[in-house]
UniProtKB/TrEMBL annotation:
This is Crossover junction endodeoxyribonuclease RuvC. It comes from the Bacteria. It catalyses: Endonucleolytic cleavage at a junction such as a reciprocal single-stranded crossover between two homologous DNA duplexes (Holliday junction). Gene3D superfamilies: Ribonuclease H-like superfamily/Ribonuclease H. The lineage of its organism: Bacteria, Pseudomonadati, Pseudomonadota, Alphaproteobacteria, Acetobacterales. It is found in: Cytoplasm. Belongs to the RuvC family. It is an enzyme of class 3 (hydrolase). InterPro entries: RNaseH-like_sf, RNaseH_sf, X-over_junc_endoDNase_Mg_BS, X-over_junc_endoDNase_RuvC. The active site is at D8, E68, D140. It comes from Bombella dulcis. PANTHER family: CROSSOVER JUNCTION ENDODEOXYRIBONUCLEASE RUVC (PTHR30194:SF3).
Length: 168
């Protein structure tokens, strides 16, 4: 069994999800959102995200992490702040000794729903279907679980390829 952590970066809300993988079976462990106060300065918010992720890693003990790649939007300031949060999302698991993997939003949607054009509602519905018992109260947490599922699928494919197993 391996425990994976999915992270959906965000400065205001950072989604996280923990999934256990055994063979081709997935099991929901936990999910949630780390929230920062929009009135706080950016360094304080980054510290809060760092501390929150460290607590989660210590508590749940994942062995690998997957982080969603960000897209560039029209507002340069927002993109830069999202980049700061993404830096924390990449750095904290790496500092904890986890291997860290990155996936684009379209790859995550394709892996979970079957199409890169899936809506957030479709992703949430499939996350609930693939992880029975996951209540998923926020889209950020659903996205984080989807990232963990995507990594589980990519990880299994990579292991099959390395072992020389032919996939249908």
């Amino acid at each position: 069994m391996i425990r994976l952590m999915g992270i959906d970066p965000g400065l205001r809300f950072m989604g996280w999800g923990i999934v256990d993988v055994e063979g081709n079976r997935l099991r929901h462990v936990a999910d949630g959102v780390l929230a920062t106060q929009s009135g706080d300065d950016v360094p304080r918010r980054l510290c809060d995200l760092h501390e929150g992720l460290m607590k989660l890693i210590r508590h749940y003990g994942p062995t690998e992490a997957a982080v969603e790649e960000t897209y560039v939007n029209r507002n340069g300031s927002s993109t830069l702040k999202l980049g700061y949060a993404r830096g924390v999302a990449l750095l904290v698991p790496a500092l904890a000794g986890l291997s860290v993997h990155e996936y684009g939003a379209m790859a995550v949607k394709r892996s979970v729903v079957g199409t890169g054009a899936a809506t957030k509602e479709q992703v949430t519905m499939m996350v609930r279907r693939l992880l029975p018992g996951a209540e998923v109260r926020r889209a950020d947490a659903s996205d984080a679980l989807a990232i963990a599922i995507c990594h589980a699928h990519h990880r299994a494919s990579a292991h099959h390829m390395a072992a020389g197993v032919r996939m249908a």
